[in-house]
Amino acid sequence: MSRRLYILLFLFILARTHAQTLGGSTVYNFLQLSNTPQLTALGGINISNQTADIGLAFNNPALLRAAMHTHTSMVFNSFYAGIKNYHVMAGFRNEPLKTTFAAGVNYFSYGSMAETDISGNVLGNMRPSDYVVQVSAARQYGERWHYGVTAKFIHSSYGIYRSSGVAMDAGITYFDSAHLWQASLVAKNMGAQLKRYAGSSAGDLPFDLQLGISKRLAHAPVQFSLTLFQLHRFDTRYNDTLFTNELGGAQDSKEKKYIFDKFFRHVILAVQLYVGDKVEITAGYNYLRRKELNITNAGNGLNGFSMGVGVLFKKIQIRYARSYYQNNSSYNQFGLNLRLNDYFGSGGLFNTAGNK
To answer: Residues with Cβ < 8 Å from 50, sequence gap 6 or more?
Structure first.
């Protein structure tokens, strides 16, 4: 009965997606940023990759597995202009409940800056920040189906402007181990603000409906991934004619339909190469990022591309990713994955009946 209720809930969620808002019209847009190096290397969004990296389950609870008991992901990053990002996530398997749980936090610190009034008088310093704290639970149905949900508490603080909200993710995954492929469907960031920013009206959260499939070749050490996102709205283009004219872009006398462009703005492609069982090399391409960050009549280099490497030791995984943005500006991300039972002992604090 509980499984039927879960399916009905998921169908209700899909029926309500038309009411959600896109892009810059939403609040808490930091929720859309990649939290782990492997996800960054895969193009920024991936919900189906076949991996033992619990960090990917932060964005799709259906990727949680029983084998991820005590797995922990820790990421420490520096963005531009002194912005810091910290991420941690850990899993726990409860065998009597046949459920895998996980808890995580993603925190952004924007450094210290002067706080002023409307006249420019300095009132002091403020330390703006954003964070999300979330708890996930996942179960298996039959041999191939996995489903999970995530509950989130979100908070933003920019001086006197503060806001809090709650949200939920729901995901379903089909994993065919015999033919080495996995497919997932996820509805993300369904929720609302509990407290609005001072002087502002209520805003929508950055809802996203995502579909992904990953296939690992049987006779070659390669895995391919195709991810579709923002499926609840086909046309995500924004054509700023004034901006285009200022940059010398040509204007057509007839309006184009841009069917090809509109479709591929929903597509992220990725490939992962396995060098033995110790090294993973990853590359991704985000078409939407490239189109939105490209400058007309300028060299845009590797905009939209990303790459990364993972070194997988027995007790620790070390991951690094590099993604490219405007004018070949790049962002580097580092992370560590480890299993706490390897350090505290399988008979210690983190052991539960049936876990090995």
So the answer is: 175, 180, 182, 214, 216, 223
Residue pointed to by tokens 């009946």: 353
47 Cβ neighbours under 8 A, 6+ residues apart: 56, 59, 60, 63, 171, 184, 186, 210, 211, 212, 227
Tokens of 325: 């943005």
Flag whether 14 is in a domain. Answer: no
Residue 13 lies in a domain: no
**Residue 18, pLDDT score:** 43
What tens digit of pLDDT does each residue of 96-119 get?
999 999 999 999 999 888 888 878
Domain count along the chain: 1
Three-state DSSP state, 229:
coil
Which residues make Cβ contacts (< 8 Å) with residue 239, sequence separation at least 6?
none
Task: Report the CATH number that the domain containing residue 94 is assigned in CATH.
Answer: 2.40.160.40
Asked if residue 22 belongs to a domain, the reply is no
Task: Give me the half-sphere count of Cα atoms (radius 13 Å) on the Cβ side of residue 353.
Answer: 4
The domain of 215 spans: 37-115+122-344
Task: Give the pLDDT confidence of 276-309 residue by residue, as tens digits.
Answer: 999 999 999 999 999 888 877 776 788 999 999 9
Q: How remote is the C-alpha of 255 from its chain's centroid?
A: 34
Nearest CA-CA partner of 272 in 56, 102, 61, 70: 56
**What pLDDT, on a 0 to 100 scale, did the predictor assign at position 239?**
59
**Predicted confidence (pLDDT) per residue in 73-97, tens digit:** 999 887 777 889 999 999 999 999 9
Which candidate, 166, 103, 157, places its Cα nearest to that of 130?
157
Does the residue 352 lie in any domain? no
Which of 165-174, 258-267, 284-293, 345-354 has the weakest average pLDDT? 345-354
**H or E element: which one contains 9?**
helix 2-15
